[in-house]
Amino acid sequence: MITPYTCGGELVAGGGEGQVSAIVWAIGGSDCSAGAGIQADLQAINGLGAHGCTVITAVTAQNSVAVSQVNPVSDLVLQSQLDVLLADLPPRIIKIGLLATVSQVVMVSQWLQQLKQTSEQTGHRVPLVVYDPVAVASSGDNLVAESTLTAVTKHLLPWIDLLTPNAMEAALLAGMALQDGVLPEPVIKQLLALGVGSVLIKGGHYQLLADHCLDYWSNGDSQRYLSAPRLDTAHGHGTGCSLASAIAAIWAQGYALEDALVFARGYLQQGLAAAVSLGAGAGPVKHLGWPTDSVMLPRVGASLAELTASDELVSPVPFAPCPQRLGLYPVVDSVAWLARLLAAGVKTLQLRIKDPQSPDLRQQIAAAVALGHQYQARLFINDHWQLAIELGAYGVHLGQEDLQTADLAAIKRAGLRLGISTHGIYELLRAAQLRPSYLALGHIFATQTKQMPSQPQGLFRLAQQVQLLPNTPLVAIGGIDAERASAVMNTGVGSFAVVSAITKATVAESMIAKLQHIAGDPVAVAETNRVAGACL
Ligand SMILES: Cc1ncc(COP(=O)(O)OP(=O)(O)O)c(N)n1
Ligand SMILES: Cc1ncsc1CCOP(=O)(O)O
Ligand SMILES: [Mg+2]
């Protein structure tokens, strides 16, 4: 389907909902063979919809086989680029690659310190910094001296929000080795102690799971694991630069970091899968824009146990199915509202009672279930999964937090459908691994109904996720009303859920009919056609 947010089936970079506004600076070295360095950075950043500016630290002479020279620019040349850009095109994110001398490391560190402190003091957005510590090229050649790495640990790391070393670089910076098959916790701990905000250790040169590249991210409090099949390719020139720049470009556009990690890993996987020989050595990673095929995306988890457990869950028994298109999906807080909606012909609906102490909770759910059966409707119960099982509801809807405590096996055994809330691609993939009946994507627009910890996802991200999971029933929720509902459906999503569009409507019944029509409810469409026919 071609929608305003896709162009000939391709997702249009830049979000489709506004102009390119995310400026990402790439500070690093020029690679004249254009496989890595600033040249790769620019391709990744611009191809993913941000605007890349460049600050050159060194002119390298290299090709696909070897790095023959690293010619650092003078500190004056480096400083002049930083100054002129800052005066006109301030960065949302700065991606740093090659810093070629101790003096460059010290200068950039001091400059970052000042930029961060001034931004904070003046109430401006503090730019985030992603550092890919380029120490060794993929050809195996050393790019910087040991003294430069020592300066990095001393001066630069405290100003880094995300460090993206491979195993060798992590070991060099932390001063301790990584062992295959052993989680790199002590190394991460050491890097965090040196002042970085979070670390992504890439699995390309380090084996944690057989046949898989496992990337491991931690900020000390939480962890993210991303695993993708190890590709048998000799053509990975520019892998590190491309991944770090892709993360920066996506993060700069307001995606949560965990979502930037997922999309960037998919970007790299598709680039490596398509890479071909160019020159006598390692060919360059291909730059193909947003990943649009879920095969390229990693499997994800918040612990290694979860990820390895999902090895057994590659094809777990799915939850009981529900239709791809659920029609209009109102979410309401009383049996009275359910009765009104069912009478209006609504076939998918949810009882969402937020007061767990409600004395008549059981009676309300029992009455709701009875009504659902009477109208042969798909009634989901929010949160109260035990009562939903006991009282024989059609399904249960659970949020992210509920997934920690709910007995999913019991819900599955009882034959109830399961819907799960998600707020970005990381949560979406993680929840999809459980094979639920549907996945909810929210919030799409700002909502007054619920305080959301995440940012609105908007239509571009909705379309992106729909394209990646075409065979899973998906429901959009959050801030959807009669004016926005058609654009929501145009993304290809199966259905949309609403609260206030109906509960705050002046005349609920006519709003329900309008929304049913937009959602493609068969009864509503037939009724509209009948009325239109009668008018002719
Ligand atoms: C269809 C649908 N999508 C999302 C939600 C939100 O559920 P949850 O994350 O559990 O938050 P609460 O509704 O419990 O506040 C939903 N209820 N329905
Ligand atoms: C429960 C919930 N979960 C995500 S957004 C939301 C509220 C949706 O309400 P509204 O349709 O009024 O924006
Ligand atoms: Mg809930």
UniProtKB/TrEMBL annotation:
GO function term, MF aspect, one: thiamine-phosphate diphosphorylase activity
Cofactor field: Mg(2+)
Domain Pyridoxamine kinase/Phosphomethylpyrimidine kinase: 31-285
SUPFAM superfamilies (UniProt xref): Ribokinase-like (SSF53613), Thiamin phosphate synthase (SSF51391)
EC number: 2.5.1.3
Domain of life, per lineage: Bacteria
Catalysed reactions, semicolon-separated: 2-(2-carboxy-4-methylthiazol-5-yl)ethyl phosphate + 4-amino-2-methyl-5-(diphosphooxymethyl)pyrimidine + 2 H(+) = thiamine phosphate + CO2 + diphosphate; 2-[(2R,5Z)-2-carboxy-4-methylthiazol-5(2H)-ylidene]ethyl phosphate + 4-amino-2-methyl-5-(diphosphooxymethyl)pyrimidine + 2 H(+) = thiamine phosphate + CO2 + diphosphate; 4-methyl-5-(2-phosphooxyethyl)-thiazole + 4-amino-2-methyl-5-(diphosphooxymethyl)pyrimidine + H(+) = thiamine phosphate + diphosphate
Cofactor note as given: Binds 1 Mg(2+) ion per subunit.
InterPro entries according to UniProt: Aldolase_TIM (IPR013785), HMP/HMP-P_kinase_dom (IPR004399), PM/HMP-P_kinase-1 (IPR013749), Ribokinase-like (IPR029056), ThiamineP_synth_sf (IPR036206), ThiamineP_synth_TenI (IPR022998), TMP_synthase (IPR034291)
Pathway entry: Cofactor biosynthesis; thiamine diphosphate biosynthesis; thiamine phosphate from 4-amino-2-methyl-5-diphosphomethylpyrimidine and 4-methyl-5-(2-phosphoethyl)-thiazole: step 1/1
Residues at which 2-[(2R,5Z)-2-carboxy-4-methylthiazol-5(2H)-ylidene]ethyl phosphate binds: T447, Q448, T449, G479, V499, S500
Keywords: ATP-binding, Kinase, Magnesium, Metal-binding, Multifunctional enzyme, Nucleotide-binding, Thiamine biosynthesis, Transferase
Residues annotated to bind 4-amino-2-methyl-5-(diphosphooxymethyl)pyrimidine: Q350, L351, R352, I353, K354, N382, S421, K450
Record-annotated Thiamine phosphate synthase/TenI domain positions: 333-502
Chain's role: Condenses 4-methyl-5-(beta-hydroxyethyl)thiazole monophosphate (THZ-P) and 2-methyl-4-amino-5-hydroxymethyl pyrimidine pyrophosphate (HMP-PP) to form thiamine monophosphate (TMP).
Record-stated family: Belongs to the thiamine-phosphate synthase family.
PANTHER family given in the database record: HYDROXYMETHYLPYRIMIDINE_PHOSPHOMETHYLPYRIMIDINE KINASE THI20-RELATED, PHOSPHOMETHYLPYRIMIDINE KINASE
Official protein name in the record: Thiamine-phosphate synthase
High-level lineage: Bacteria, Pseudomonadati, Pseudomonadota, Gammaproteobacteria, Alteromonadales
Gene from which the chain derives: thiE
